[in-house]
Amino acid sequence: MKTYLPPNFLIDRDQERCIQCQVCVNQCAFGVHYYDAEDDEVRSHEENCVGCHRCMIFCPTHALTIRKHPLDYRENYNWRPEVIKDIIRQAESGGMILTGTGNDKGYRIYWDHMLLNASQVTNPSIDPLREPMELTTYLGRKPDKVEVDGDSHHR
Ligand code: SF4
Ligand code: SF4
User: Fold this and answer.
1) Which of 68, 99, 115, 154 is most exposed, with minimal Cβ within 10 Å?
2) Whole-model pTM above 0.85?
């Protein structure tokens, strides 16, 4: 699909070092590199690159350098580059923008700040190495009641 988004990464292939082995073609899961048989040269569709650096690591002659695209939008506090790119991406795809492996924004990750301290719930305190402890955490609305059977499975 034709996109008006600039590539996020630039791929430099040092032709002095490249031996046309096509390792990069086989290693990239995003189909970025391809072999141009007519010119006997390996080339790249940079717009598909996600910057994982796999091809760079596997290239036997270190011919590849993956760089962030230096495109500079006009500065604006609200219309930051990521906002502009997200709008273009959403307009072109009509889909929701999802990010894998966690949120890529600088928001606080509340899970990392949760402390479950059960030391004071019984007296004498439960020894977690010998006594079973229930650490189930309920998210969302509070249930009217929680039933626990003999094997600690919730119903
Ligand atoms: S892996 Fe490196 S040497 Fe092989 S074709 Fe790709 S850039 Fe060239
Ligand atoms: S950095 Fe990753 S996505 Fe980009 S061309 Fe190399 S292997 Fe493909």
Assistant:
1) 115
2) no
